[in-house]
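hey
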């Protein structure tokens, strides 16, 4: 990225559309001499061209021969994507035409741009901050409607506003701590430590919210992973097939049919949901089945949600209690399957029994929190309503995902910095509470502030720029 920084006064050009044949290909040019390069490319174009207006013009080579007829749009300084003088040529999407246009632009003094260089210039010229630069990339790469919405919110500056607020509040706290070091500072009312602690705790809460939101953002971006677990023969594979509407897994009345983890995907309410069917959990001496059971257990930790499946025609066993403890610290729900085989009274009886067992498990130290109404569902894999009922239950465990108007951080770089800021804010709260010297607390807070400034790109170095821009495609 040092290279981009050192050559930021070059005129750059690139094809902005995919390589190959297409109706139209767009070539972009940006740099201090963009206007004169445009005049050199389209020699018949009036020198009076206005910014943001499309002109139909011929594009010429160095021998003044026509290369193509194209639509050209000029963007003057500061009113362009890059923040510098630039233009776009929409020519016919023939690779030989594109090649000739680029050759001509290079003759006229431009050079081929590096990947992400246009967005880099937008950043350097303060058109966007680093959050927005990353949003450009994630918007191009979004794979679902919901993921696109997150990227758009980042691009339009909502997330940046939040970070700017954090930056200004941290600066305020820092100013007050520094003021108490230097008593001669005038014009600042020194707040007491408890006032500062209160403010820092609010900041910490906001950082925590961002960290939690990151988890949700990842789910929206990459889909939700759900695993079906339970004893053999309870109907896990039947449920998988019903949920993904395809005969993915083998179903038989023999206990121990599924040996491997079988994954299939479905879409529901705009969300991608990946469902894993697993080998039934039981003690076994069968070598292959044993491996399968271990794989089932390994899936638990990888899942966003575990669904423990029961067969309602079988008595609730000790196994159930044990299986429930496997989900410590994780989201889970219970499917009481084969409910087509029992009547309403039996359902009621099972519910009561289940509530008692769960109550027992919850009394254990460090136990699971459980909402009976929200986390237990009677299912029948052979009934029509099954798919919707189960998938609604799944999404209900992620209700906060509906808060899409919230600002979500979705890049690994950003969340690393947020975690770092949180660590320092917590440290500064502890330091303030223990009455440590203001000089030390000021240093801790400066580190927190630096982390937030790096997210926005208000402070940056080559390493940060490299991380943000190296993933970009050519022409962006
Ligand atoms: N009546 C009824 N039968 C079901 C239901 N779900 C599954 N079954 C039957 O139960 C048997 C076992 O179903 P599977 O889906 O293979 O069960 P599993 O939990 O995957 O079993 P393993 O792979 O052995 O762990 C099959 O005969 C299914 O047809 C249900 O909701 N109602
Ligand atoms: Mg199975």
């Amino acid at each position: 990225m040092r290279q981009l920084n050192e050559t930021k006064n070059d005129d750059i050009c690139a094809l902005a559309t995919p390589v190959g044949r297409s109706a139209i290909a767009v070539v972009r040019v940006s740099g201090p001499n963009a206007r004169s390069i445009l005049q050199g490319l389209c020699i018949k174009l009036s020198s009076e061209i206005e910014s943001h207006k499309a002109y139909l013009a011929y594009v010429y080579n160095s021998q003044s021969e026509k290369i193509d007829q194209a639509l050209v749009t000029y963007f003057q300084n500061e009113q362009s994507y890059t923040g510098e003088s630039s233009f776009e040529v929409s020519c016919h999407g023939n690779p030989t035409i594109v090649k000739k246009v680029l050759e001509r632009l290079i003759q006229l003094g431009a050079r081929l741009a590096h990947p992400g260089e246009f967005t880099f210039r937008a950043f350097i010229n303060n058109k966007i901050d680093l959050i927005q630069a990353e949003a450009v990339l994630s918007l191009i790469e979004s794979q679902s409607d919901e993921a696109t919405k997150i990227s758009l919110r980042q691009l339009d500056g909502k997330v940046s506003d939040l970070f700017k607020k954090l930056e200004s509040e941290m600066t305020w706290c820092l100013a007050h701590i520094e003021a108490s070091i230097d008593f001669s500072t005038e014009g600042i009312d020194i707040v007491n430590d408890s006032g500062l602690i209160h403010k820092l705790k609010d900041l910490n809460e906001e950082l925590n919210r961002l960290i939690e939101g990151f988890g949700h953002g990842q789910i929206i971006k990459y889909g939700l992973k759900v695993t079906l677990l339970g004893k053999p023969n309870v109907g896990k594979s039947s449920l998988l097939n019903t949920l993904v509407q395809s005969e993915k897994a083998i179903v038989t009345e023999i206990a121990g049919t599924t040996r491997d983890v079988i994954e299939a995907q479905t879409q529901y309410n705009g969300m991608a949901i990946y469902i894993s069917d697993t080998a039934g959990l039981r003690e076994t001496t069968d070598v292959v089945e044993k491996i399968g059971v271990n794989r089932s257990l390994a899936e638990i930790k990888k899942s966003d949600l575990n669904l423990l499946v029961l067969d309602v025609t079988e008595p609730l066993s000790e196994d159930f209690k044990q299986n429930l403890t496997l989900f410590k610290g994780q989201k889970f729900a219970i499917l009481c399957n084969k409910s087509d085989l029992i009547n309403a009274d039996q359902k009621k009886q099972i519910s009561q029994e289940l509530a008692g067992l769960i109550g027992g498990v919850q009394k254990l130290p460090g136990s699971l929190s459980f909402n009976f109404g929200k986390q237990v569902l009677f299912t029948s894999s052979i009934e029509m309503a099954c798919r919707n009922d189960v998938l609604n239950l799944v999404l209900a465990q992620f209700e906060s995902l509906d808060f899409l108007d919230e600002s979500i951080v979705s890049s690994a770089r950003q969340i690393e910095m947020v975690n770092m800021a949180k660590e320092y804010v917590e440290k500064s709260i502890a330091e303030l509470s223990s009455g440590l010297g203001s000089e030390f607390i000021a240093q801790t807070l400066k580190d927190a502030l630096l982390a937030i400034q790096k997210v926005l790109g208000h402070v940056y170095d080559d390493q940060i720029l490299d991380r943000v821009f190296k993933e970009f495609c050519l022409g962006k």
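DSSP finds 17 helices and twelve strands in the chain. The chain has a mean pLDDT of 90.
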